[in-house]
Write a structure and sequence with these properties.
By secondary structure, this protein is of the alpha+beta class. It has a single domain, classed as Hotdog Thioesterase (Thiol Ester Dehydrase, Chain A, Roll), CATH 3.10.129. The chain is 19% helix and 33% strand. Strands 1-4-5-6-3 form a five-stranded antiparallel beta sheet, with helices on one face.
């Protein structure tokens, strides 16, 4: 992901004091929660809510994740969270993310974090199943040609 893509979904998030660590920066694991916020809002706005998926007896747990840290975020920063769908198979969906901040005096946002998560579709009992056709049909048009995050 080298820049925002037209099909990326974005929302904002204000860093809370509780998001930071003793060093005064956003604690690294909290970025996975920010990825989840972006992914949840992308799904709600463009596909369906996770509640709708759960009502079908399915869940989509994270099976793999990657995070590359580029610059720190601090208390009270207003961040832009971006999410897009980079890959879709009959069983999995790969979401990519960018977290940026617009700093005073800069025309271009500062990239703080980028990464991805891969989700499998499973039953509540943990059995891997195909993504239901109705859900697949709503996800497929959102797949971007995003470069894989190494």
């Amino acid at each position: 992901m080298t820049g925002s893509t037209p099909s990326a979904f974005s929302c904002t998030y204000r860093v809370l004091y509780g998001d930071t660590d003793a060093g005064g920066v956003v604690y690294n694991a909290n970025f996975l929660r920010l990825f989840e916020i972006a992914r949840t809002e992308l799904m709600r706005a463009r596909v369906c809510s996770y509640r709708d998926i759960e009502q079908q007896g399915l869940i989509m747990p994270v099976t793999e994740c990657f995070t590359r840290f580029k610059a720190p975020a601090f208390y009270d920063d207003l961040l832009t969270l971006e999410a897009s769908i980079a890959e879709l198979t009959r069983y999995t969906c790969r979401f990519t993310y960018r977290v940026t901040r617009l700093d005073p005096g800069r025309l271009k946002p500062t990239l703080l974090v980028k990464g991805y998560t891969i989700h499998a579709t499973v039953t509540r009992e943990g059995k891997l199943v195909r993504i239901p056709e109705s859900l697949y049909a709503r996800l497929q048009p959102l797949v971007t040609a995003s470069k894989k995050v190494p």
